[in-house]
Amino acid sequence: MAGAPRPGGRSAKVRAAVLSAALAELAESGYHALSLDGVARRAGVHKTTVYRRWGTREALLFDAINARADEYVPIPDNGSLRADLLDLTRDAITNLSTPHVQAVARSAVALAPYDAAVATTNTAFWTERLAVDGIVVERAISRGEIAPTDPTEVIEAVIGPAYMRVLVTGRPVTEEFLAATVDRVLSGLPKPAKDV
Amino acid sequence: MAGAPRPGGRSAKVRAAVLSAALAELAESGYHALSLDGVARRAGVHKTTVYRRWGTREALLFDAINARADEYVPIPDNGSLRADLLDLTRDAITNLSTPHVQAVARSAVALAPYDAAVATTNTAFWTERLAVDGIVVERAISRGEIAPTDPTEVIEAVIGPAYMRVLVTGRPVTEEFLAATVDRVLSGLPKPAKDV
DNA sequence: GCTAAAAGCGACTTGATGTTGCTTTTAGTG
DNA sequence: CACTAAAAGCAACATCAAGTCGCTTTTAGC
């Protein structure tokens, strides 16, 4: 019996090739037109390999996405809420504009009601993501820049319109739009009490 | 040769049954799992009928959606921007929470990048929709309630976060959330100059 | 009631999806 | 370095849904 597999061995290479091909195919054709055979061909691998190791589209994509899920998203800390929110939304939209990420996002929107695993993963992702991003709001509160508010809702207020443009309305997201959105949200936030 | 078809004739009945079945199937199974045969069975019709009259999933859904597109969306006019925006977003979300509408919206998100017809229809829909909804903002401006701003962006600011909750994050959209969002946007809008 | 169009029907073709048994390659062990 | 078990390659096969075709039956409009 063979021991633990090597990180750079054939299995690992095949796995990486297939997962990467899966995301590329998803971006090119969309979930509805994704075939395991197509992924196998793109990865330069025989389709039985894909069938035996993953079996279904769902399992394959789940694996492909999770393999990338730990990508590092930096939390800005400029000492100014405006600059932090602007960095945050810009990064989020830049990321969402990537073909791979956008394809995953669109697939998640399409599948969430029909696939419990997708829904669960999605909820978990956003719960964590909104909480982490909310840190910049919490910092602003403890800095005394704004009065206490729900950090999550502030994040939703700044990225919601931009996300909607990219995914739903298809309108262009310009730097001016982001700045205007952030400024509108900022002037809508409660001012801190003068004392303390 | 037969003349113009009757509104209540067999053809019209079959057409209505199929289009309605198409939306129902879309809501139940999602676009990726939609089959013309399934629609035909649900409509109590033979599949050749569907194939001969529509031919493809896309054509069928396009027809089904357009047949409902002229549904009437009332523009509120309460004399107060806050009340108008609240009515508007509440109606939009109530509508989007309908299984049929939500299924269509999710499908549009999934298909837009891969299907030019979907993208075009979608853009046209949103251009019109945002312009029409923007009327409540224009009224508030001419009423002197707020200083001039881009009406479209105000609409996007209020419905963006709610749409994102329904379609993307899956978080619940409560009346309180809508009110908080509208209030945030309102206090972020420029105040009118005192003169005139 | 006559007729052309539309719907129904089942058989058929086709192509994609997924499976199986077997061979070949590769990675890890003694 | 040779041996072995796992993983990948391969081709043939089974399955099944998608879509087509020729024909019959029904129905709407004259």
Explain this structure:
The structure is a homodimer of 196-residue chains. The longest helix of chain A has 20 residues. The first copy, chain A, is mainly α. Helices cover 70% and strands 0% of the residues of chain A. The radius of gyration of chain A is 21 Å and the shape is elongated. The model of chain A has no long low-confidence stretch (mean pLDDT 93). Chain A binds a DNA duplex (30 and 30 nucleotides) through helix 1 and helix 3.
Helix content of chain A: over 70%
As a whole number of angstroms, the C-alpha radius of gyration of chain A is: 21 Å
Put simply, the count of helices of chain A is 10
Distance between the termini of chain A: 69 Å
Helix/strand order of chain A: HHHHHHHHHH
Oligomer class: homodimer
Structural class of chain A: mainly alpha
Major sheet of chain A: none
Number of strands of chain A: 0
* Low-confidence sequence ranges of chain A: none
Mean pLDDT of chain A: 93
Q: Most extensive interface: pair and counts?
A: A-B, 48 and 48 residues
Strand content of chain A: under 5%
